[in-house]
Amino acid sequence: MVPPPCREVKNAAGKTPKEIFNENHEDLFYQSEKWIKESINQSMVVATLVAAVSFSVAISIPGGYDQNKGFPLLIRNNEFIDFIISDASSFFLSSISILIFLSISISHHTVKQVNFILPKQLYLGHWTLLGSILALMGAFLRNLSTMYKEKSKLFEISASLAYAFYYLIVIGFTAVIGSTYLRNTHLGRKKHNLY
Fold first, then answer.
1. What is the pTM of this model?
2. Which residues contact 77 (CB under 8 A, 6 or more apart)?
């Protein structure tokens, strides 16, 4: 830890404290870059699966198509419209997530980028991935309510439990991602200096 007035002061070799730290801890840079790449690869697989599922669901919609006109049979159903919006949101968000992760993985990074810029990009990529998963879950629940809403009382109870579980997942993932990324060093918030 260096007092703020001494951050730019050079030693006898003509190096600032930050330059000395970067030289002595170069392995930390490579370890953090490796961890970020591994995290991105795993997240990109999940985002690709979500995109594939949401695309296939959009092609084979619930209720089928009218054979004469080619339009979906349930087009006038409000829950079906909600289903289409949720599915399209899932596909759109997962595609954005794939593009963010791809841009991170194919670019070269400096020490400053690994410390400050990459966590912001990773944060954005994981948020869009989370949004796509939650939208896909919403599409699934809307599909169930569209297809089976008049079947039984048991469905109403199970759908209510599924919606409660859905919102618990939203709250849980928000807490996990927020605690992981919403730190002073990652998002540029002002840190309180001791001096």
1. 0.70
2. 146
- Dig out the tokens for 21 from the structure: 């730290």
Q: Which tokens in the block code for residue 7?
A: 């951050």
Domain spanning 30-181 has what CATH number?
1.20.140
Give the CA distances from residue 116 to residues 157, 187, 190, 195, in Å, rounded to whole numbers and listed in that order: 47, 7, 13, 23
Whole-number Å distance between alpha carbons of 40 and 110: 17
Average pLDDT along the chain, 195 residues, taken 10 residues at a time: 71 76 75 81 92 89 74 74 87 94 80 70 86 86 73 68 74 69 50 46
Give me the pLDDT at residue 193, please.
47
User: Residues 23, 27, 28, 30: is their CA dihedral positive or negative?
Assistant: positive
Residue 100 burial (10 A CB sphere; 0-12, 13-18, 19+): buried
Smallest CA-to-CA distance from 95 within 133, 127, 56, 51 is with: 51
What are the respective helix, strand and coil percentages of the chain, to the nearest 5? Answer: 70, 0, 25
**DSSP-assigned letter for residue 190:** P
Structure token pair of residue 91: 């596909």
Which DSSP category does 71 fall into? S
